Amino acid sequence: MPRITRDQVKVPVDVMPEFREAYIENYLKATRETGRLMLFACDQKIEHLNADFYGEGIDESDADPEHLFQIASQGTIGVMAGQRGLIAHYAMDYPEVNYLVKVNSKTNLVKVSQDDPYSPQLHELEAVLAMRDAGVNIVGLGYTIYLGSEYESTMLAEAGELIAEAHANGLIVVLWIYPRGKAVGDREKAPETIAGAAGVAVCLGADFVKVNPPVATEGASSAENLHIASVAAGRCGLVCAGGSKADPREFLSSLYDQIHVGGACGNATGRNIHMRSLDEAVRLTQAISAITLDDASVEDAEAIFNGDARFTL
């Protein structure tokens, strides 16, 4: 079982001295004192509208936004990521959840064929800090960059400023970096593109970066190609997006390989969890966390998902 102590947390020097202890506390909360991140991504209500929450193959409970918070509360996660307004509506009833506020978002209505993607910043950091000061358990911020978009300069500048301000106030930052746009074309998941995104994240000062798994190439699996990106990320922990709902064993096997072959330090999973019933979703968070936070085997994690074993930290 990987564990880290307070003195093992590498605190960036842009964290102000008076907030150093707050940063350490937030980092340990988000990683469950392991240095690895189990991020429950709940930002799709803007990103994908209602398509991820209602329809064929999706449990009917997912239509209610509170389903996300019930999973986060009853399951085993490190941090729940969602927009500020979503968290503001429900955090009072789920104060124990570690929250990461997604600072920018866009819908999927405008396609790349119409215009390169741009995810606008929805509010200033002060609005997040005000919620934290009011007692909401906010441990960090999240921000999406579409690298290669003609609007990347705006997103890079916004992200850089937010990271500096967030660190100064003791918050951790997770960047979502997706190479996308006409200049990128079909190279969105090419190993060199994903590694490039990881390098951008560490240069901006992020604590973690969420990327899509790179494609397999001749002679190298996706996980083997991911290792290139993990090295490029340096001290910025790299985690992979979970994608849409998939077979649990297939997903858990991929996650295991991403960590133990690809060098990832966790995962960022949303749809594959919340599209399920509450009971099934909770069991899947426990199975994912068993691999991510406790180095469990795929077989042991699958037993947890099937209800044949239990996982507690």
Automatic annotation (TrEMBL):
Provide the top EC class: lyase
Q: Which UniProt keywords apply?
A: Lyase, Schiff base
Q: Name one GO molecular function term.
A: fructose-bisphosphate aldolase activity
- Any Pfam family: DeoC
InterPro entries linked: Aldolase_TIM, DeoC/FbaB/LacD_aldolase, DeoC/FbaB_aldolase, FbaB-like
Give the lineage: Bacteria, Bacillati, Actinomycetota, Coriobacteriia, Eggerthellales
- Where is the secretion signal located? none
Entry-linked Gene3D superfamilies: Aldolase class I
Q: Where is the active site?
A: 178, 210
The catalytic activity of this protein is classed by the Enzyme Commission as 4.1.2.13
- What's the family? Belongs to the DeoC/FbaB aldolase family. FbaB subfamily.
Protein name, UniProt field: fructose-bisphosphate aldolase
